[in-house]
Amino acid sequence: MQILKSSLFLSLIIVFGSCSEPSNRTKTGAIGDSAMVVSAHPLATKAGLFILKNGGNAYDAAIATQFALAVVYPRAGNIGGGGFAVIRESDGAIATLDFREKAPLAAYKTMFQNDSGLVISELSTLGHLGAGVPGSVAGMWQIHQKYGSMPWRELVQPAINLAFEGHRITADEADALNEKQDDFKEANDWTPWVINDDGWHEGAYVRQLQLAATLSFVRDSGRDGFYKGIVAKQIADEMERGDGIITLEDLENYEAIWKEPLVGTYKGHKVISMPPTSSGGIALLQLLQGAEQVNLGDHPHNSTNAVHLMAEIEKRVFADRAKHLGDPDFYQVPVAEILSTQYNSDRFDEINITEITPSSQIKGGDVPYESDQTTHFSIVDSYGNAISITTTLNLNYGCKVWVKGAGFVLNNEMDDFSAKPGVPNFFGLVGAEANAIAPGKRMLSSMTPTILEKDGKLKAVLGSPGGATIITSVFQTVINLVDYDMSMQEAVEAKKIHHQWLPDQIKMETGAIRPETKTELEQQGYKFQEVDKIGRNDCILILPDGKLEGGADPRGDDYAEGY
C-alpha cells in the first residue's frame, strides 16, 4: 500500500492544522505566477496545491481538494453529497459534469406530505428520509477517468492522511458543530465524533479513523469502493436502522453524467456555466442578459437604482426558475427558449427605473416548449486548465445522519424537490411540477459553477455556496469584475443583495447599502431582511500579465494560494 506521507504534506497538517484565519485579507487576493487553488479551508487548498506542485493538473488537484474538504469542512465538504463541475481545458475545450444526488427508487411524489396533504418539512431536512443517493465520489471518479494525469490513489491519499493524523478545527467550524448538537443527537442512534457534550472550541484536535478507513476503500477500489462492498453495505444498514429508503441497488446504479455546457455572453465576455439539473447556469445567463438590457453597470455599485434594477431582474428570473426548471431526464426544460434574446428582451422590457413590480404581479413567463450548505472551489493549473466545482449537502451537515462505521454525514437534498407545488423549501424557494419528486430523479439546484473567457482566453473561474443566493452571488461577482473593474478579492468581498421573487423582499448583507439608499428604496415600497452573510465566493482572475489572483471569501475560513 502506497502512503503519500511526504514531509511536505505532513508539515502542512502541522503548520496549518491550528489556523483559524487565512492570511489573505487585503483588497488584492493571493497572487500566483502559474497556478492557483481557492477553497473553503486552508488545508483543502494546501492538498490541491500539493498535487499541482507534484506534477498533477487542475483536475487531479480538484479531486484531492474535494476529498480533503470532506475531512476538514464536514458541514459542506463531502463524500455523502453531490455537485457540479464546469471544465475548460487549456485549448479552450469545455465540458460539464452533473454528479447531483438522485431520489432513491422508493421515493414518491407525496412522501413529505401527511394524509391531509400538508407538507411536513422536518421529514426532508432532519433524518434518514431526507437523503438522496450521493454523487460526489462518482463525480470525482468520472473526472479522473477523463482528465486525470496522476494515479487515483495518490489523489485520495492526502485526505486519508488528514483524517488519520487529525487536524485542529477553526472557530467557525466549532461554532457550526455546537449549533447542531441537538440535531446530531436526534438523527443518530449512536455517538459519531461530532457529538460533544462539553462543547467544541477553536483548536480542538479531531481524528476521523472511520472516515480514513472509508477513504481507503475509495482509494483502493475507486468508485466501487463507495457504491459497492463494505461502504455501500454500511450506508444501506444505516438507512434500514433509520427508516431511510436508499438501497444497495440505488447506490450501484448511480451515475454521474457529462453534459453540454450552457454558453452565453456578457459585454464581450463568454460565460460558461452549468445546465439543468442546475438552475444556476440558466438563471445566471438570464440575469446577465437583463443587466445588459437595463444598463445596470451604468449605475454606481449598490446605489438606489442599481439595487432596484437587480431586484426587478432577479424577481423575473426566479419566477421562471420556479415554473420551468427541473431534471431534463424527467421534464422538458425549455432551455433555449428561456435563454433566447427575444424572450428576455420582452421579459425585462417591462422594468421601470422608478417603479416596483410586486412579486404578486410576476409569474413565470410563457415560453413555447419545442420538443445554506454548499461549498465551492476554483483551480487553475500551470498548463492553463481550469475547473470550477460546487458541491453540497444542502443544509449544514446535511440530514445530520452519520453513517455508522463509515464516518461521514449524508445530505438532505430531498428538500430541494418541490414537496408540493407552491410550497417553499427550506430556502423559501417554490417550485412546480417540473421539480416534483420522482424515483431516480435529480433535484433542482442553485449551484452555479462558472468560467469566463475574454477574447478567446481564460478570464476567471467563479462560484459560491449559499442556497438560493448562489445564483445572485455569482451574478454580482461577474458584474463587479466586468462593470465595476474590481480586483478579484474586491469582487468577492463586496457586500451582496438578493431577491428571489418569493418572499417579496430584498435580502441584504449588513452594510451592503448606505442607510440613505435603504431609506429611498423603502420609500419606493421595498422590504428588507438584513443578514450577516450572503454567498462565500472562491474565485480566480487571470490578470493582464498572465498571473493569477485568487479571491478567498473572508466570510469564512476560505484560503487562496498559488505559485
Describe this protein with a few key phrases:
2 domains, seven-stranded antiparallel β-sheet, disordered N terminus, alpha+beta, 19 helices, 563 residues, single chain, Serum Albumin, Chain A, Domain 1
Topology overview:
Elements: H1 7-16, E1 30-32, E2 36-39, H2 42-53, H3 58-72, E3 82-88, E4 94-99, H4 122-125, H5 136-147, H6 152-165, E5 167-168, H7 171-179, H8 181-187, E6 205-206, H9 209-221, H10 224-227, H11 229-241, H12 248-253, E7 257-259, E8 262-266, E9 269-273, H13 280-293, H14 304-324, H15 335-338, H16 341-349, E10 374-380, E11 386-392, E12 450-454, E13 457-462, H17 469-482, H18 488-493, E14 497-498, E15 506-509, H19 515-524, E16 528-531, E17 538-542, E18 548-552, E19 559-562
Parallel strand pairs: 15-16
Antiparallel strand pairs: 1-18, 2-10, 2-19, 3-4, 3-11, 4-7, 5-6, 8-9, 9-12, 10-11, 12-13, 13-17, 14-15, 17-18
What does this structure look like?
This protein has 563 residues and is an alpha+beta fold. The chain has two domains: 7-258 and 374-435, no CATH class; 280-320 and 333-370 and 499-533, Serum Albumin, Chain A, Domain 1 (Orthogonal Bundle), CATH 1.10.246. It is 35% helix and 15% strand. The protein is built from 19 helices and 19 strands. The strands form four sheets. A seven-stranded antiparallel sheet has the order 1-18-17-13-12-9-8. The chain has a seven-stranded antiparallel sheet with strand order 7-4-3-11-10-2-19. Strands 14-15-16 form a three-stranded mixed sheet. Strand 15, helix 19 and strand 16 form a beta-alpha-beta unit. The longest helix is centred in the middle third of the chain and has 21 residues, at 304-324. Mean pLDDT is 93; it is low at 1-8 and 11-25.
